[in-house]
Design goal:
The chain is α/β, with parallel strands linked by helices. It has ten helices and 15 strands.
Length: 281
């Protein structure tokens, strides 16, 4: 992939590793983990560049406007919302199958508890993480971090869902379609869940959570491209938020977190799944 995609433009890429390189992938290239592409010497792309992606040039223009709008809103000072390992709902993973409860994610809970103090908030976990409790908090939050299962609907991207705890008559599933209709003022949403970057592949990128969140007003979204292992993800996210406190550039914070996690978990599957879509600052 490096040979095909990067080698032809190598001489055009910036020499300074802190300068942003924004990829606008076409169709299935949206699922390529650009940070993990290796050159002939075995050097990963993330070691040389700070990387972001966007579904299209138009979406990049939209996220830029959203960032400027949020910057001009003095009232934008809500708390961070951090959720980890809610009591899992029962779902049918394919048509006609009986419903089964999704497996708990203890690593996601540990992750939420570790990063909540960095964001000066309390982690919401277990039975507290109901859809009824989380959804009303989302429009006020300045940062939203959801560490839970993501369910992919690759037939109808907007049917993809994030697992929250069920309560009353609701099934606990927050769909991309529901997010699409929200009015959010968070400057960053992190979906630290399995497969949250995926969705139906179309000509203008992936229809799924990232597009729904951008449509809801969020300028920066971090999603995962595959089912990520618990422990390295927890480490990477902790490092990301620590870096973000020292430097508001989200792309640089994510790059540094990847470089740190790479030292203890060298396999790309452990550190390269997350991608920042939209704005860096």
């Amino acid at each position: 992939m490096h040979q095909l995609l990067i080698d032809p433009i190598q001489t055009l890429l910036p020499k300074d590793p802190n300068v942003h390189v924004i990829f606008i992938p076409q169709a299935s290239l949206f699922q390529v983990p650009f940070p993990a592409l290796q050159d002939a010497n075995g050097t990963y792309l993330i070691e040389k560049h700070t990387i972001l992606t966007a579904p299209s040039i138009q979406v990049l223009a939209l996220t830029r406007q959203q960032r400027q709008k949020l910057a001009s809103q003095a009232s934008h000072s809500g708390n961070a919302l951090v959720l980890g390992n809610p009591t899992m709902p029962s779902v049918s993973l394919s048509p006609g199958e009986p419903k089964r409860q999704l497996s708990p994610l203890p690593g996601a809970e540990a992750e939420a508890r570790a990063i909540a103090p960095l964001l000066k908030t309390q982690a919401i976990t277990g039975a507290q993480g109901t859809k009824a409790a989380i959804v009303p908090k989302m429009p006020q939050a300045s940062i939203i971090h959801l560490a839970t299962h993501g369910l992919l609907d690759d037939v109808r991207g907007l049917g993809s869902a994030i697992a929250l705890a069920p309560s009353g008559s609701d099934d606990g599933l927050l769909t991309a379609e529901e997010i699409f209709d929200m009015k959010l003022q968070a400057n960053l949403v992190v979906l630290s869940a399995c497969n949250t970057g995926e969705g139906r592949i179309t000509g203008d990128g992936v229809i799924g959570w990232s597009r729904a969140l951008i449509s809801a007003g969020v300028p920066s979204v971090i999603v995962s491209l595959w089912a990520v292992p618990d422990a390295p993800t927890s480490e990477l996210m902790r490092s990301f938020y620590q870096n973000l406190q020292n430097n508001p550039d989200k792309a640089q914070a994510l790059r540094q977190a990847m470089l740190t996690t790479m030292k203890t978990h060298p396999q790309p599957r452990n550190w390269a799944a997350f991608t920042l879509i939209g704005e860096s600052e």
